[in-house]
């Protein structure tokens, strides 16, 4: 019996993505140019930024009208009031505001800093910011369907972003869009090596894959927004679902 293994391979040659670009076509062209293939049960992890760029989610801060509430919060957290206004528009609740930090619950249910709005790795005007994708689970499903049609392989597609975590330093890759795989492997009812039944164990598989992919895609000038993951077992594809499964229900959220 061979030892299990899991491989992460960066797809080179993804060009700068612009609004309206066909992401599936760009990815398939880069795979061919890099002599990389897609097989059944491969997973592609995409940086959130290329999905947002293709969806034209860039906003010029100069076009933003600022509300009184945004000005008030901006004075507390020492951020650009125009950015704070966009954060409020993208959020369902403001959770923490201190100098330098604005933590919100995004309208998608994600708890993160600045509603996931970012200015890094954006070409063009200095005043541009990038919002999270619209309906990232649907975006992942659309990409999965297109990539499967191109490759004739059964695939998973994840959209990844980098979030901070309570009680931990640094950012880590998390999944905000998922298609084709089970984002949350439920192992309750299985037994451990000592025969004890697992009562609460659920594995955040999609987050783990996005964190692993982040080691290659990076946060700076790496220019590697697509990572191929190979070696997942068939179990991961039995119960595919959205990344929304990973969001903890509010009635069990001890950090709010």
Describe this structure in words.
The protein is α+β, with helices and mostly antiparallel strands. The chain contains six helices and twelve strands. A five-stranded mixed beta sheet has the order 1-12-2-8-9. Strands 4-5-6 form a three-stranded antiparallel beta sheet. Strands 3-7 form a two-stranded antiparallel ribbon. β8 (155-165) and β9 form a beta hairpin. α3 (68-77) packs across α4 (81-89). The longest helix is centred in the middle third of the chain and has 16 residues, at 136-151. The mean pLDDT is 91.
Short description:
The protein has helices spanning 23-33, 48-54, 68-77, 81-89, 136-151, 205-217, and strands at residues 7-10, 42-47, 58-60, 91-98, 101-106, 111-113, 128-130, 155-165, 168-179, 185-186, 202-203, 226-230. The chain is of the alpha+beta class and 256 residues long.
Beta percentage is: 25-35%
- The sequence of SSEs as H and E is EHEHEHHEEEEHEEEEHE
User: How would you sum up the major sheet?
Assistant: 5 strands, mixed
Q: Helical element count?
A: 6
How many β-strand runs?
Answer: 12
Helix and strand layout, with pairings?
Blueprint: E1 7-10, H1 23-33, E2 42-47, H2 48-54, E3 58-60, H3 68-77, H4 81-89, E4 91-98, E5 101-106, E6 111-113, E7 128-130, H5 136-151, E8 155-165, E9 168-179, E10 185-186, E11 202-203, H6 205-217, E12 226-230
Parallel strand pairs: 2-8
Antiparallel strand pairs: 1-12, 2-12, 3-7, 4-5, 5-6, 8-9, 10-11
Please supply descriptive tags for the structure shown above.
256 residues; alpha+beta; 5-stranded mixed beta sheet; 3-stranded antiparallel beta sheet; 6 helices; 12 strands
């Amino acid at each position: 019996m061979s030892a299990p293994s899991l491989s992460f391979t960066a797809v080179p040659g993804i060009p700068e993505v612009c609004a309206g670009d066909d992401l599936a076509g760009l990815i398939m062209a880069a795979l061919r140019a890099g002599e990389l293939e897609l097989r059944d049960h491969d997973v592609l992890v995409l940086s959130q930024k290329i999905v947002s760029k293709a969806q034209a989610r860039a906003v010029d801060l100069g076009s933003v009208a600022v509300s009184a509430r945004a000005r008030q919060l901006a004075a507390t957290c020492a951020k650009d009031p125009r950015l704070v206004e966009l954060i409020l528009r993208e959020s369902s609740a403001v959770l923490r505001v201190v100098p330098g930090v604005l933590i919100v619950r995004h309208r998608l249910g994600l708890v993160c800093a600045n509603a996931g709005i970012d200015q890094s790795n954006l070409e063009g005007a200095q005043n541009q910011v990038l919002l999270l994708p619209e309906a990232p689970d649907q975006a992942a499903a659309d990409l999965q369907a297109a990539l499967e049609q191109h490759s004739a392989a059964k695939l998973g597609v994840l959209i990844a972003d980098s979030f901070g975590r309570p009680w931990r330093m640094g950012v880590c890759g998390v999944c905000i869009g998922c298609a084709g795989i089970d984002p949350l492997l439920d192992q309750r009812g299985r037994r451990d090596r000592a025969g004890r039944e697992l009562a609460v164990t659920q594995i955040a598989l999609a987050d783990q894959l996005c964190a692993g992919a982040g080691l290659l895609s990076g946060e700076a000038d790496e220019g590697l927004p697509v990572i191929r993951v190979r070696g997942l077992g068939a179990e991961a594809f039995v119960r595919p679902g959205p990344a929304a499964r990973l969001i903890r229900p509010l009635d069990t959220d001890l950090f709010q």
